[in-house]
Structures are given as C-alpha cells and as structure tokens.
Amino acid sequence: MAIRFIEDKKIFRLDAGNSTYVMQVRENGYLQHLYYGASVRDDDLEYIITYLMCPFHPKAYDSWNNKAFSTDIQPMEYPVNGTGDFRTSAFSVNSVCGSNATELKYDSYRIIDGKPALEGLPATYLNEDDKAQTLEITMVDQFSGVKVKLYYTAFESLNVITRHCVVENCGNESVFINRVMSMCLDFNRVEDYDIIHLWGKWAKERQLERVRAPHGITNISSKRGSSSHYHNPFIALCDHEATEDSGNVYGVNLVYSGNFAAEVEVQAEESMRLIMGINPVDFSWKLEAGESFTSPEAVMVYSANGIGEMSRTFHKLYNRNLCRGYWKDNKRPILINNWEATYFDFDDDKLEKIAKGASELGIEMLVMDDGWFTNRLGEFGGLGDWEVDTTKLKEGLSGLCKRINALGMKFGIWFEPEMVASNTKLYAEHPDWVLHVGDRTRNLDRNQMVLDLSRKEVQDYLFGRISDILDHANISYIKWDFNRNLTEAGSAILPRDRQLEVFHRYVLGLYALLERLHNAYPMLLLEGCSGGGGRFDPAMLYYSPQIWTSDNTDALDRCKIQYGSSLCYPASMTSAHVSASPCHQTHRASSFETRGNVAMAGSFGYELDLNLLCDEEKALVKKQVQQYHDFYNCIHYGDYYRLVSPFDNEYCAWNFVSENKDEAILIFVVMRDRIFPRYFVKLKGLDPAKKYRDVNSGKEYYGDTLMNCGLNLTKVYGDLGSVIVHLKEVK
Ligand code: DGJ
Q1: Which atom of ligand 1 is nearest to the CA of 479?
Q2: DSSP percent split of the chain into helix, strand, coil, nearest 5
Q3: Strands 249-255, 297-303: parallel, antiparallel or unpaired by DSSP?
Q4: What is the DSSP track for 507-545?
Q5: Ligand 1: does its nearest atom lie under 6 Å from the Cβ of 414?
Q6: 178 near 283, Cβ under 8 Å?
C-alpha cells in the first residue's frame, strides 16, 4: 500500500518508490509535516519535533500539554497567512471581512486508488500498468467556510509524489483567494542545504545555478504570463555536499506555463520552507459560494543518490506519464526548418529546393517557419488572419504540401496563434479581443498584441482558423510559437474584481485550445516554442512532445543550455538543430561535426540550407541521419548521466545508457582547448560485468573499466572539438 493512515497517532504515511513522506494531525487540528526523505520503517516520527519556548513566535491558541506549539516554528504541511506563522505561506484567502488572515484545520481524509485528473489543467497520468494511490486531506477554515483539499499521489515504483489542491467555497459569501501554492515542504533544518535552479534569458535559457540557501526568502519566479526564459518552474534543494551521485536531493517542478513562484525561506530557528505554485503577485481569484478552484500540479522527486538520479526520475516520469498521444512512442521524423536558411525571404520554389536537397540526404520533414501568410514580410504585421500569402505560395498551402510530399517528405508549419498584429482584419473587427486595460496604450512588443485567450470566442476563432488550415493541406506538424510576454493583462469581459484572474485564465484558455487540437488531430506533432525556450515547462510537454530549446544554436552555448535543461527535462523533449557556421546568434564558428554531436543529445534536426554545404559536410549529414536512427531509442528513452559540467569546466560530457544496459552513447565536447590536454572521461550507468565494443574503433572494454578508468579522449583537441562514442554490448 502506497498510502496509510495510522489511526491512533493520526499519522499519514506515503511511500513512493524508495521514499517516505509523513505528516500528522495534531491535537489542535493543525496538519504538521514530519518527514520526507529516504524510506524509513517507523511510522511514529513525532519525536523529531522540538518544542521551543521562543519569544515572538505566537503560540497556537489552543496549545496543549504545556507544549509550546507555534505554527511559526513547527514544520507545517500547508501553512496559512496571518494567524501566527510569519513565514511565507502556502495559502491565504480574503474573506467576507476583508482580512487575509486564514486558518486551516484538519477535517477528514480519503485514500483513492489511482490518480484523479485535474480539472482544466495538464498533469501526469497513470498508464495501465502503473500503480499509485492518492491521498485527499480536507482542511477547513471555519471562519470563511472555505475548504482546501490537499491531494498527494504516491507512485509505487518511482520516487515521485505529485501534489495539487482544490479550494471549495462552502460558505455563503464570495471570497478572494490571493495565495494558493501547489505544494509546501518544511524542513527541520539541521543540515545545510543548497538551492539549485535554472535562470536565463533569450538565447541563454536554463543556466544551472547552485547557491547555499541563505537566510531570508529566495524567490525564483515569473510574472511575465509565461514560465519564461528568465526562470524555469523548477527548483531543487540538496545537501550542501550532494553530487551527481550522492546526497539527498528534493526536486520540484510545476506543471504550469504561466506566472509561477518558488520560494525558499530559511528562518533563524533552523527551519527551512519551500513553496511552489501560481505566483501570488498579480493574482487574486474570486470564488463565489459553491465554486471551486484547482491549483496546478507540482511534481516532487526525491533522490537519496544525488542530482543525477533526481533527473533520471523526472525524465522517466515525463516520458512515460506526461507525454501523450501518438508521438509518445512513435519515432519522430527528422526535420529541416527553413528559418535560419531564409528568414522571411522565401517562396514555394525556394522551399522545395531546400526540401529536395534535404530529402536526398535522408531528412524526413520540411518545416516552413514564419512568413507564409499575408502581410508578413518581416517581424511586423500579419499575425491573426492566418491567410496564405499566395504571392509566396502560388498554389496555396496544399500545392506546396503536395510538392513536399512528392519528395517523400512530411510537411510542417509555423504558427503563433496567441498573437495578433494591428494591420489585420481580425484586429479591425475585434479590437477588444486583445489583452488590454481600458484606454491604456497597448504595448506593441515585436509589433504584436496578445489575444485574450481567456475568452471562449477567441479560442473558438483560433481553433477554427487552425483547423481550416489543417483540413485543407497534408500538415503533419505545427511549431507553436509565442514571441512576447503579457502586458496590460486585462480582459474586456471581466468585472473589476476579477481582473487579477486574467493571467491564470489566459493559461487555462491556452490549455483548453491545445487540448481541443490534441483531440481533433491525434496524429499532429506539436513542437512548443517561445522565442526558443521561453515556455519550456512540463505543462507544454503534455501537449507538445518536443519544445524548441533555444534560438541559440551555437554548439558551445548549447552545451550549457541542454545540460541545464537536463536537470528535469528529458532529451526527447529538447529540440536541437544543426545550423550554419558562424552561428547567427553568437557569430562563433564551429565544425559541422561538433554542431551535430551537440544536437544529437536532443530531438534532432537541421536549420540551414543543406544545398549550400560542401560534399564533405553532406556526407556528414548522411552520417548524422544514420546516427539519429541508430541512437533514437537510447537517447529518447535511455538513462541520462551528466559526467562533466560545462558550467565548471572547459570541456563537458554526458552519456546515455539503454534500458537493458546493452548500449551507451557518450558525447564529449572540448569547449576551450588547453595546452597539452589529457582527457579521461569516466562513464556512468553501465553494467560493470558487461563487455562493450566501441563501434568506431572496435576496441572492447568491460563496463567497470569504462566507469572507473574511463575512456582516454585526449585525441580530441582544439576549441569545440568533440566526439560521440557509441558502445555496444559484445554478446
Ligand atoms: C522565434 C522562434 O524561436 C524562431 O525559431 C522562429 O520561429 C521565429 N520566432 C519566427 O518568427
């Protein structure tokens, strides 16, 4: 049994994989957190609680047995605001009297077999052969009549607990939720913890940063309307000494694409709190009597064996229990995208030529990027009407599709559905369909405005336009772009006291639209994108099995971007293309081989005109295409091991190992050469007793040799020199 209630002690115990999670209902009705970490046998962990008689920590009103129970010191399960716990809170409701003071006491519980879906929100799901149980704990705020149902799903065979909550207004008056975090984790902080998070910006997404958790509040968040280039909805806490292979690590990832916040608060009395959920800044939700509100899902992964194991658990979960539909298990076509080959300057003949050259080298799909619709000669205009520019595509979309299909290739197309430009029919007819605030100037970032996706008629319009295009041409793929953030986030149809709901309603509207498309076009392959990786989160993975990782395709920068992304996202999700050299974003030159070797560690493709390559490079394309096919299973579904970090070294390495350990792929890149370097790279995750053959050199090694002595890669030299080593079990 994954979940148990120990009646006499009022203790809830969850076992997920090799982890245990324990909480207790106290005599005063508070729900107290007792433990989360490696599996333990005992249930009664109340003894770990210390009662401190500290001044300036309000005692709970009904303290008992002379125990100085203060919610301001004790590890709490779902802390609230304004009634004694001054730390950052998980929940706060503004009730009838206008105060934010909230108090939640235990009411009841249920244990459910399986995992319920979240209303209107993407979430992890169970496959037929997965076992999991869900605990529902109901907490009540007597004063307002608000109930909060806390949900915990414990996966039996993975160290994963997912959490979310549902707020129900059981009172007679409307209330305003102004804080509803999806999870909270309190620690009795006797150890020293580090925070790991992913920061970035456009073309430099998901840079890994690790800092010692400082006193005060560390806030990792977005209020841009999307999960953003700047911070990712991922955070991990780990022992200060934790490495890739050792130490306690707690990783949390929010399945959400909008404004989020993760906060870590360290307080003087050895307490540390982590909360994560919808960003409370610019958020308020009016809940009428009888209504309910569902928070997004937070995925918690515990690893007793370092950061690497945490990542592999996330990867497994996302590949098996988040990614859906046809493209979850079927091999995705290797694609060529025309963006960096032509930008806006293309027509059907040019595209056909690019496709023809590519198909001769084994590429399976042409993706036509931005610029195929009317009024779109550059980064201004056109977005919203989605009418084909027949000066560029003379026989329309279906004509071009047929020409590409005749080459034996699939055809994909770029869209940016959430946006509208001012020179469109759509904007002329519906100026109120964009997010705006009264007569305030409407910000025209990238010459476009954001459609109000919270409105059903806007969703219907977009579904209609997209399906009209999909129904009239043989389109296999959509690159779904999103190139600006939300400003003046107001909606014309919401009353004043609901305007702070717009950010969340927008995200719900986006999910509703994506779900509708997913159901109507089950074979359509969707690739998420937001100026590269500006909306790279698990919620988008639910709809789009792969996401464009970054607009920066420079091999050196990509080592860091992809390495950072790997903290919680699998390679299958991480789109990586070979583009021209020098790189258009950084102007740095690198060899064709290294660009391919780096891109191979993701969802592989090309982004240049292959016709312009010399014969030697064309031969390399053929080799890379072959590698893509040969490596597909190991890279997409195998175990991923980070070996040498590009953030701490001048070279970097990672390896993939197939599920049954009969194959491994090592990727090694010298970022900056040194004088007389010596490179030994020790692989991880192999079977020590198996013998592996280096497919290239024919040399054979036992797994333990490869993992302990390592491979001598000293022959790889020069800035941005690289190699892929393919190892296969000798049977
Ligand atoms: C931003 C994307 O990240 C690029 O790949 C490209 O699709 C452009 N938008 C097109 O405008």
Answers
A1: 7
A2: 25, 35, 45
A3: antiparallel
A4: HHHHHHHHHHHHHH-TTPEEEE-BTTBTT-SHHHHHH-S
A5: yes
A6: yes
Q: What pLDDT, on the 0 to 100 scale, is given for residue 67? A: 67
pLDDT tens-digit readout, 5-27: 999 999 999 999 999 999 999 98
Q: Lowest mean pLDDT: which of 184-198, 205-219, 318-332, 376-390?
A: 184-198
Predicted structure pTM score: 0.98
Asked if 725 and 665 touch (Cβ cutoff 8 Å), the reply is: yes
Domain ranges of the chain: 3-321, 333-632, 644-729
In CATH, the number for domain 3-321 is 2.70.98.60
Is ligand 1 within 6 A of the CB of residue 372? no
Does pLDDT of 270 surpass 90?
no
Please list, in sequence order, all residues whose beta carbon lies within 8 angstroms of the beta carbon of residue 679, skipping any fewer than 6 positions away: 651, 668, 670, 712, 713, 714, 716
**How big is the chain by its Cα radius of gyration, in Å?**
26
Is the CB of 21 inside a 6 Å radius of any atom of ligand 1?
Answer: no
**Cα–ligand 1 centroid distance for 568 (angstroms):** 24
Distance from the alpha carbon of residue 392 to the mean position of ligand 1, in angstroms: 19
pLDDT band, residue 698 (cuts 50/70/90):
very high
Q: Is the pLDDT assigned to residue 64 strictly greater than 90?
A: no
467 by Cβ neighbours in 10 Å (0-12 / 13-18 / 19+) ranks as middle
- Concerning whether 609 is annotated as a catalytic residue, the answer is no
Among candidate residues 15, 369, 481, 537, the one labeled active-site is: 481
CATH of domain 333-632: 3.20.20.70
Is residue 548 within 6 Å of ligand 1 at its C-beta? Answer: yes
Residue nearest to atom 2 of ligand 1 (CA): 531
**Confidence band, pLDDT 50/70/90 cuts, at residue 62:** low
Average pLDDT, the chain: 96
Residue 531, sorted as left (phi over 0), alpha (psi -120 to 50) or beta, turns out to be left
Which neighbouring-strand residues pair with 239?
193
% of the chain with per-residue pLDDT over 70: 99
Say how far apart CA 299 and CA 640 lie, in whole Å. 19
| SS3 at position 311 | helix
Closest residue by Cα to atom 1, ligand 1, is 531
489-529 tens-digit pLDDT: 999 999 999 999 999 999 999 999 999 999 999 999 999 99
Which residue in 178, 183, 151 sits closest to 263, CA to CA?
183
Q: Give the single-character DSSP code of 661.
A: S
Q: Which contacts (CB < 8 Å, 24+ apart) does range 489-497 have? A: 489/225, 489/282, 489/435, 489/437, 490/435, 490/436, 490/437, 490/438, 491/435, 491/452, 491/454, 491/455, 492/432, 492/433, 492/436, 492/452, 493/452, 493/455, 494/454, 497/176, 497/286
Look up 481 and say whether it is catalytic.
Answer: yes
Residue 36 CB–ligand 1 contact under 6 Å: no
Class of domain 644-729: mainly beta
Spatial distance between the Cα atoms of 176 and 291, rounded to a whole number of angstroms: 12
280 CB-side CA count, 13 A: 21
Strands 603-607, 639-644: pairing kind: unpaired
Residue 548 Cα: closest atom of ligand 1? 3
